[in-house]
Automatic annotation (TrEMBL):
<keyword id="KW-0067">ATP-binding</keyword>
<keyword id="KW-0472">Membrane</keyword>
<dbReference type="InterPro" id="IPR027417">
    <property type="entry name" value="P-loop_NTPase"/>
</dbReference>
<keyword id="KW-0547">Nucleotide-binding</keyword>
<feature type="domain" description="AAA+ ATPase">
    <location>
        <begin position="86"/>
        <end position="244"/>
    </location>
</feature>
<dbReference type="InterPro" id="IPR003593">
    <property type="entry name" value="AAA+_ATPase"/>
</dbReference>
<keyword id="KW-0139">CF(1)</keyword>
<dbReference type="Pfam" id="PF00006">
    <property type="entry name" value="ATP-synt_ab"/>
</dbReference>
<protein>
    <recommendedName>
        <fullName>AAA+ ATPase domain-containing protein</fullName>
    </recommendedName>
</protein>
<dbReference type="GO" id="GO:0045259">
    <property type="term" value="C:proton-transporting ATP synthase complex"/>
</dbReference>
<keyword id="KW-0406">Ion transport</keyword>
<dbReference type="InterPro" id="IPR050053">
    <property type="entry name" value="ATPase_alpha/beta_chains"/>
</dbReference>
<keyword id="KW-0066">ATP synthesis</keyword>
<dbReference type="InterPro" id="IPR000194">
    <property type="entry name" value="ATPase_F1/V1/A1_a/bsu_nucl-bd"/>
</dbReference>
<dbReference type="GO" id="GO:0005524">
    <property type="term" value="F:ATP binding"/>
</dbReference>
<dbReference type="GO" id="GO:0046933">
    <property type="term" value="F:proton-transporting ATP synthase activity, rotational mechanism"/>
</dbReference>
<keyword id="KW-1278">Translocase</keyword>
Length: 244
């Protein structure tokens, strides 16, 4: 999950006895954390006793809510022609430089003015918890960073009633999973992606859901390699999104 500088053969390793656990709750708002839940904003440590494992089960089918409500974004063309449903998964598909991140930043700005809790992987306001992992970071961090952000969002869904989770870019989750699969020696599937692509994506996306306590509305930007919508990465993500 971090650099290997200073690690030597024979160095003792301590078993914590539990999976990766990160801080959750109000203490994370306005802070920037990494995959391990450690602050990377050069500020004081996050002081909270509330912690949660990044590996969790999706809500049971009987616990899911069927109520439907529109999420007002403040962007007229979206609210009129392609409204977003609360608790839905919205995919923004496109190649490089078409404005996916710009739209997400505008949504963050508008939604944060209305909702008390907004969880984001990209931009920053005082009502947002940021979870960052850049492309120059180790493979493990890039593969699990989405689960860290999702864990923060799940806490606010269960405690506050609703959340908006921004993911930019979900293609990097698929890309990291492909690299992990290659290191494990698995036989690649179509276009070189991992054979477990559909299962990995489905397991993660099923956690972004609405239960009787509240909802998580997810807005995800999805990079389309070579503008090919039939590429397995965007095609698999497409199957897990509700509206575009």
């Amino acid at each position: 999950m971090d650099g290997t500088e200073g690690i030597v053969r024979g160095q003792p390793v301590n078993d914590t006895g539990y999976p990766i656990r990160i801080p959750v709750g109000d203490a994370t708002l306005g802070r920037i954390i990494n995959v391990m839940g450690e602050p990377i904003d050069e500020r004081s440590p996050i002081e909270t006793e509330k912690r949660a494992s990044i590996h969790a089960e999706a809500p049971e089918f009987v616990d899911m809510s069927v109520e439907q409500e529109i999420l007002v974004t403040g962007i007229k063309v979206v609210d009129l022609l392609a409204p977003y449903a609360k608790g839905g998964k919205i995919g923004l598909f496109g190649g490089a430089g078409v404005g996916k991140t710009e739209l997400i930043m505008e949504l963050i700005n508008n939604v944060a003015k209305v909702h008390v809790r907004v969880i984001s992987l990209k931009d920053k306001t005082s009502a947002i918890a940021l979870v960052y992992s850049q492309m120059n970071e180790p493979l493990g961090a890039r593969a699990l960073i989405t689960l860290t952000g999702l864990t923060v969002a799940e806490y606010f869904r269960d405690q506050e009633g609703q959340d908006v989770l921004f993911i930019d870019n979900i293609f990097r989750f698929t890309q990291a999973g492909s690299e992990v699969s290659a290191l494990l020696g698995r036989i690649p599937s179509a276009v070189g992606y991992q054979p477990t692509l559909a299962a990995d994506m489905g397991t993660m996306q099923e956690r972004i859901n609405t239960n009787k306590k509240g909802s998580i509305t997810s807005v995800q930007s999805i990079y389309v390699p070579g503008d090919d919508l039939t590429d397995p990465a965007p095609a698999t993500t497409f199957a897990n999104t509700f509206c575009l």
